[in-house]
Amino acid sequence: MTATIDAPPAAPPQGSTPAWPAALAGAVAAAVALAAAELLAGLAGPVPSLVTAVGNAVVEAGSGTPVKDIAIALFGTAEKTALIVGTALLSLVLGAGLGVLGRRRGMWLPALGFAAFGLLGIAATTVNPLDSTAWSVPAAVVAAGSGIAVLRWLLAYDARLVTAAGSGAAPEKVARGRRDLLRIALALGAVAGVTGALGRSLVGRGQTNAAREAVVLPDAAASTIRVPEGTAFEGIDGLSPLFTPNDDFYRIDTALMPPVVDVTTWQVRIHGMVDREVVLTYEDLLSMEQLEQPVTIACVSNEVGDDLIGTAMWQGVRLADVLDMAGVDPAVATQLVGRSVDGWTAGFPTDIAFDGRDAMIAVAMNGEPLPVDHGFPARLIVPGLYGYVSATKWLSEIELTTWEAFDGYWVPRGWSKEGPIKTQSRIDAPPRGAALTAGEVWVAGVAWAQRRGITRVEVQVDDGDWQDAELAEELDVDVWRQWRWRWDATPGEHAIRVRATDADGVTQSEERVPVAPDGAEGYHTRSFRVA
Ligand SMILES: Nc1nc2c(c(=O)[nH]1)N[C@H]1C(S)=C(S)[C@@H](COP(=O)(O)O)O[C@H]1N2
Ligand SMILES: [Mo]
């Protein structure tokens, strides 16, 4: 100590070799390792999440012990999340320790530490029979490898700074180097955080899919979808099928990632202006009387001629049945609001649930449990209303309120409070880009006027007369109807238009109207080149 008073120090003073860079390097390396493992698990189905596996193993080991009770007491009922966060945080702290050790004793120690981490992860996967231990090996190797690489690089960076300080480099230069190191480490940590979160959400999705696959639907939907005789035209290239396959069904929602719902704890609560609150679990819904109904749903944002519309066989519980359990007076509780697990809302007049249409809490789509993208485990389907006012996916609440008391998600954003679907028609065939030659060509498509039904579709070529198209049989007023028209095509460029008339005798409006605020209007027109 006295030497430093009289003369400049021969060795760098303690303050210039702080421990934090090594600790930070270790923590960041651990974060990168975890993130790499999670991303791999998220991307590759059979690869288990090592963090989850370790968490599960801890639960297994700790069941019936105070460890678990303390975790629940500290973090509330979100013990699963707490466990994962806890496992991750503990890993970061251990990583920091490895960083400090690595600087003092050399890289072999942290390398062993990371390898031990990997082995622990692999061992943890043996606890849960659903985890593949074999597939955990690549995850562990990638995790340990990336952790070691990052730590090596950061410690080498730090070592250069220590050497520079020791050989008399300007203190500002060393300080700047440290700031750069801090910045790099924090950036790496941030990237690891984002990657890890992405990986986890993908893992969660995989778990939801597994839960979904385990669902056994009540009889009704076990039947495959049969298309009744005459309701669909065969063999017209480009024509939309009567039922839209789930994989081709349009998807519209505000969720960046579809919410991950644990179906074993999920429930829907019917509350607000009711005689008694009702809470239904997934099991409850499946055990109630099932309704199976084909419905064409549509998005208010569907431009004329576009494909934000699709038809499915929906299965579920009649909404009126559920409302009757709760005791609802639609003259008093004038609005029904569906709320999603992620807080999204949609509201419509309560009357609609009782007016005879097949409004339902749907659990199945085309004979399968609802796909995750389309609202697993349950959603609302209300024939005749655009999705934004009715079709709440990942349903968690049905709240009865008044029309004036609440506005659903899209209403304050400039969309109409009421959203009945408008009569529309679309030309599907011939498909885009088809090489047409003169002669007979099928022009075909779909037309819809939910709640009313379609009675007439007409086609016009260039400025010719409107001609009646042939209609397939109506499956249901709430389902689109296929139409076709035999065109004797002549060489040249032609414009073809279509218009539909509903069962009230009202023809769709010709004047173009944009999608906002309550749905597009106008005739769909396409041009074709005939050779
Ligand atoms: N939770 C939730 N449900 C939602 C939405 C949403 O953003 N979040 N969007 C609605 C809209 S605008 C439409 S058109 C339909 C689309 O349903 P689909 O994605 O199954 O086709 O879902 C509705 N349900
Ligand atoms: Mo929509």
Task: Report on the architecture of this protein.
The protein is α+β, with helices and mostly antiparallel strands. The chain has helices at residues 3-6, 20-43, 50-62, 66-75, 79-105, 108-124, 133-166, 171-214, 219-222, 282-287, 319-326, 351-354, and strands spanning 267-272, 278-281, 291-298, 309-318, 335-340, 345-349, 360-365, 368-369, 379-381, 395-401, 424-429, 439-448, 454-461, 467-468, 470-471, 481-489, 492-502, 524-530. The strands form 4 sheets. It has a 5-stranded mixed beta sheet with strand order 2-1-10-5-6. Strands 3, 4, 7, 8 and 9 form a 5-stranded antiparallel beta sheet that branches. A 4-stranded antiparallel beta sheet has the order 11-12-16-15, with no helix packed on it. β7 (360-365) and β8 form a beta hairpin. The longest helix is centred in the middle third of the chain and has 44 residues, at 171-214. Bound molecules: the ligand Nc1nc2c(c(=O)[nH]1)N[C@H]1C(S)=C(S)[C@@H](COP(=O)(O)O)O[C@H]1N2 and molybdenum atom.
